[in-house]
Structures are given as structure tokens and as C-alpha cells.
Hints:
Blueprint: H1 4-7, E1 22-28, H2 31-37, E2 46-50, E3 60-67, E4 73-84, E5 95-99, H3 104-117
Parallel strand pairs: 1-3
Antiparallel strand pairs: 2-5, 3-4, 4-5
Amino acid sequence: MADNAASTPSPAPPVLPASRPSVLSLSIKEKAALYAAYMPFLKNGGIFVPTNKPYRIGDEIYLILSLMDDPSKYPIAGKVAWVTPAGANNNKAQGIGVHFPGDESGQRVKQRIEEVLGAAIGSSRATHTL
Length: 130
């Protein structure tokens, strides 16, 4: 007679809740600050967010972005694509680069930033990242 215990499936391991994305807020007041923070070299665009919190590449971030006199707030569900640690070379500010998503919200904020920056995007001035 076969042993029924061998064919009984074992219970699934407990499912751990996914960690919730960190919520950050960034308010950019000047065009020069926007230029320094914008990351046009990322596929969908991105923005540098100064922070002392430790993050890793790939961490999910929920960012509320305000741009100068624009009354709109741009909610961005992005991912960390860049980390500048404390004490980085060239006195770069500590923080993270948030890659915009490829969806409509990411395209909308990328387009708005590029409208504001205009020809300045091609400048060789230093930024927070490169």
C-alpha cells in the first residue's frame, strides 16, 4: 500500500509583504537647479534627488516633483538608477538618481522638464551626476 503522506503537497512558505516604495518629495525652484538635477542620459529621463537615506540601484521610489512656478505636482513611480554616496569625489551632493517610468506619467514629466530647460540640455555645465 502506498504511503499517502508522500503525495500530499507541503504547505507553501509564508509570503512576505513586498517592501513599500520610499516616498520622497522634491521641489525645484530655479532653472539652474533643474538643469543640475535632470538626467537626460537615462532612457526615460530621470532626476537627482538629494537624500541622506541609503538606497540601492533598483529600489522603487515614489517621488512627488514640483517644478518652479508650475502649479502641477508630478507623481513619479520610478526606480533608483544612480547613487551618489556621502563623501563622493568632486564634492558631489549625496543622493539618488530616480529613473522615470516608461508610462505616460514618466513621459509627461520628461517632456515638461525638457520644455523648461530648452537648449540648456546640451550645455557642458556640471550637474549632480555627470
